[in-house]
Please model this.
Amino acid sequence: MSCESEQYMSLMNKVLDQEATKQEEEALFAHLAVCDECRVHFNELKTATELLRRLTHPHLPASFTKNVLDQLPPDKRHAIRRWGSRHPVLTTVALCAVPMSLVMIGTRRQWKEKSGYALVKMSGDQT
Model:
């Protein structure tokens, strides 16, 4: 289109989607009255939109989803990964609990060593 196509294209879409204000509709129709190219394009868009609105939505049987899922190949992931994907919160807690436990054990050992008694007596210690 040779005219200000960006402005009028967005107006055409807004009018067809029934989102345009009265002033926007009047501005578009005033332009369409003088611009043959835009008028032809708007009529094509309007026809396509009306055809799309006439389409019916297919009514699927209740077992459609189950039938499709049954036809998919079996899940070959490892059992631990499968469990982890089903229980993400428990997996996260387990993955955080192990390192935190090790940190706590190490901190406790260091605290005991500083407080005057050691867990393991080394051969060179005089305590």
Remarks:
- The chain has two domains: 5-54, 78-117.
- Helices lie at 5-16, 22-34, 36-54, 64-71, 79-86, 88-114.
- Residues 5-54 form one domain.
- DSSP finds six helices and no strands in the chain.
